[in-house]
């Protein structure tokens, strides 16, 4: 049986009190539950659980090279605060995403991308066969003037998808996202590229290596939604296309 560890912030109170975290965890759990290909158990753990105790669920003493197939463990972090001593297939990209100023500087140097604050998100579903680009997500109109927090998991905002952009802007975004993920040697997952937009100019803000709060806008709007896409990426299931569900 597979075991999925959904890893959230260290503060247990934040984990239980944040409505956004509850909705995100619920969306991941639903995606897992709808995948009937293999029996799977799910446990939500905090980063503290991963570093302070060993309860036989594959925490700090778990070694992926010695874990038997009957005890397969899949990590699903929903936080950038993952301990560096934890062996994960995506620890490198999580560390890079955590250092926002450093990542901005690296991209400016290596792929000549302008940096700045932004409130738009390009979903990139990076499958084993390559990237699929979703429709851009933006803040709902009533939150347009609100300053975004650094941690999108702890602020109850509302997001909309899709934001329609010109083909020229789309191509610029896709090129930036492709170069960014290639530069980071990013593994399969659902990513949100946060960016700013001023007329026809794009600036890179930061990268989220998992579906954070803006991805909630995809539920009931995009098929498959971004949480299902993330689960499929983590388990190497094929995703053929991302489509916006027609409005009746």
Gyration radius (Cα, Å) is 18 Å
Mean pLDDT over the full residue set: 85
| Helical proportion, percent range | 25-40%
Characterize the largest beta sheet: strand count, sense, and whether it forms a barrel: 6 strands, antiparallel
Which stretches of 5+ consecutive residues score pLDDT under 50?
A: 53-69
The ordered H/E elements are EHHEHEHHEEEEHEEEHE
Distance between the termini: 40 Å
CATH class division:
Alpha Beta
Indicate the CATH topology.
D-amino Acid Aminotransferase, Chain A, domain 1
Architecture (CATH level 2) name = 2-Layer Sandwich
The overall strand count is 11
| Structural class by secondary-structure content | alpha+beta
Number of helices: 7
CATH superfamily: ATP-grasp fold, B domain
Work out the count of structural domains.
1
Question: What general form does the structure show?
Answer: globular
The portion of residues forming beta strands comes to 25-35%
């Amino acid at each position: 049986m597979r075991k999925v560890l959904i890893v959230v912030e260290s503060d247990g109170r934040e984990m239980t009190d944040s409505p956004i975290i509850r909705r995100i965890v619920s969306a991941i759990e639903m995606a897992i539950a709808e995948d009937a290909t293999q029996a799977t158990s799910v446990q939500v753990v905090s980063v503290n659980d991963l570093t302070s105790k060993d309860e036989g669920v594959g925490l700090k003493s778990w070694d992926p090279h010695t874990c038997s197939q009957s005890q397969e463990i899949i990590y699903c972090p929903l936080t950038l605060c993952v301990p560096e001593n934890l062996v994960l297939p995506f620890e490198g990209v999580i560390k890079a995403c955590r250092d926002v100023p450093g990542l901005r500087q690296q991209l400016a140097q290596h792929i000549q991308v302008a940096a700045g604050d932004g409130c738009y998100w390009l979903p990139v579903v990076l499958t084993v066969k390559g990237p699929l680009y979703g429709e851009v997500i933006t803040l709902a109109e009533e939150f347009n003037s609100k300053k975004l927090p650094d941690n999108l998991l702890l602020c109850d905002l509302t997001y909309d998808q899709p934001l329609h952009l010109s083909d020229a802007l789309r191509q610029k975004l896709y090129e930036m996202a492709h170069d960014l993920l290639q530069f980071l040697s990013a593994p399969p997952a659902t990513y949100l590229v946060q960016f700013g937009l001023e007329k026809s100019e794009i600036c890179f803000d930061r990268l989220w290596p998992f579906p954070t709060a803006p991805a909630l806008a995809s539920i009931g709007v995009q098929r498959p939604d971004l949480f299902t896409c993330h689960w499929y990426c983590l388990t190497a299931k094929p995703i053929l296309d991302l489509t916006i569900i027609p409005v009746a």
